[in-house]
């Protein structure tokens, strides 16, 4: 973008842009969410107003990030571009997670859509996609590679790279925060809050590294920013300010997300939100191949039967039956063996969707 005017009270209002594709998608997202809320209400489901507010606020901030004067001046100032980055990778994704659109779609639609969502949540691909083992390295790589390489220069001179970068930031932040910032319908067992805080604390590292590096660098990494203007700070000072925004702003926003997680933890302190249920879920998955078992694996016979049944399924053979009577040699007249006493069968347990215990 060439010839960006100096910011004034007038240009802040007159430099808004209205890309049709983005705005149509945002209108569809707003209308679709409100329609699902109305549908859920008709079905007797009380949908919290705060979740709807989070969704609409996220869409409004997206408009600010891509349409407003903030978007216009992000082509001329690295520091303003950094503000847009933080909105797209932290603020907006957090609001989207708190709005819980996946749960709304699951609960407000018919059984076919709900079953499809359940299958998606149980799939290996989805678990890998939202696992911190994947999302934390992705988050760090996106921050480092888009700020400390020649990417910013290429982005400033090619609009398609710029647009792709905005989408990349939004998707990366959403995938990272999906299992960490709230209680959206994602994976079972849900991550305990202690581990969520550890993962969020790890994510502070890339923010700090990028921010400090930009502050301390004596080389202008993206001179194209200054080429679009003849006003404002020199390129190196602008880059240093961008580093300050990334360091203090990024770390500050991550700390706020951590405080929100602590608030959820305190509010749900009387529920099973610790490491125990999470470790039990891992044990169920390793032994029985599911995180929502219908069998108590602490019961000796039930555990053995379930494990043998799983091995049989893997080998394609029928599960061996466990004998209930020990064989004896006949002596004299044959007498029927007394049946082995068995414990009363445990009532079947039904698996329900996760409790609605998010911040919204």
Please give a structural write-up.
- The protein is globular, with a radius of gyration of 27 Å.
- The chain has helices spanning 11-14, 20-42, 49-67, 69-73, 78-99, 101-108, 111-122, 124-130, 132-147, 151-157, 159-177, 193-216, 224-227, 235-267, 275-288, 300-315.
- The protein has 360 residues and is mainly α.
- Mean pLDDT is 82; it is low at 272-276, 291-298, 324-334 and 343-356.
Salient structural properties:
single chain; mainly alpha; 16 helices; 0% strand; 360 residues
What's a concise summary of this model?
The protein has 360 residues and is mainly alpha-helical. The protein is built from 16 helices and no strands.
Topology (elements, then pairings):
Layout: H1 11-14, H2 20-42, H3 49-67, H4 69-73, H5 78-99, H6 101-108, H7 111-122, H8 124-130, H9 132-147, H10 151-157, H11 159-177, H12 193-216, H13 224-227, H14 235-267, H15 275-288, H16 300-315
């Amino acid at each position: 973008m060439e010839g960006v005017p100096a910011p004034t009270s007038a240009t802040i209002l007159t430099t808004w842009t209205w890309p049709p594709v983005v705005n149509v998608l945002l209108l569809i997202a707003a209308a679709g969410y409100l329609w699902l809320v109305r549908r859920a209400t008709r079905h007797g489901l009380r949908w919290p107003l705060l979740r709807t507010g989070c969704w609409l606020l996220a869409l409004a901030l997206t408009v600010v990030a891509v349409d407003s004067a903030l978007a216009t001046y992000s082509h001329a100032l690295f520091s303003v571009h950094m503000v847009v980055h933080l909105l797209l990778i932290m603020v907006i994704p957090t609001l989207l997670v708190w709005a819980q659109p996946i749960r709304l779609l699951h609960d407000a639609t018919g059984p076919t859509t709900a079953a499809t969502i359940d299958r998606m949540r149980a799939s290996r691909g989805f678990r890998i996609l939202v696992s911190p083992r994947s999302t934390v390295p992705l988050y760090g790589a996106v921050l480092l590679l888009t700020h400390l390489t020649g990417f910013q220069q290429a982005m400033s001179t090619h609009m398609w790279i710029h647009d792709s970068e905005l989408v990349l930031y939004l998707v990366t932040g959403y995938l990272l925060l999906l299992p960490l910032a709230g209680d959206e319908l994602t994976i079972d067992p849900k991550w305990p809050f202690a581990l969520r805080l550890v993962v969020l604390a790890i994510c502070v590292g890339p923010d700090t590294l990028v921010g400090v590096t930009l502050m301390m660098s004596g080389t202008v990494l993206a001179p194209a920013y200054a080429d679009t203007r003849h006003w404002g700070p020199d390129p190196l000072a602008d880059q240093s300010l961008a580093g300050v925004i990334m360091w203090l702003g990024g770390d500050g926003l991550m700390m706020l997300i951590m405080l929100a997680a602590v608030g959820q933890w305190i509010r749900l302190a009387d529920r099973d939100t610790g490491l125990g249920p999470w470790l039990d879920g891992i044990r169920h998955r390793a032994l029985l191949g599911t995180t929502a078992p219908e069998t108590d694996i602490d019961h000796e016979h039930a555990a053995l039967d379930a494990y043998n049944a799983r091995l049989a399924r893997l080998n394609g053979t029928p599960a061996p039956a466990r004998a209930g009577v020990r064989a004896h040699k006949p002596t004299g007249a044959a007498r029927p063996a007394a049946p082995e006493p068995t414990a009363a069968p445990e009532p079947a347990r039904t698996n329900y969707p996760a409790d609605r215990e998010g911040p919204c």
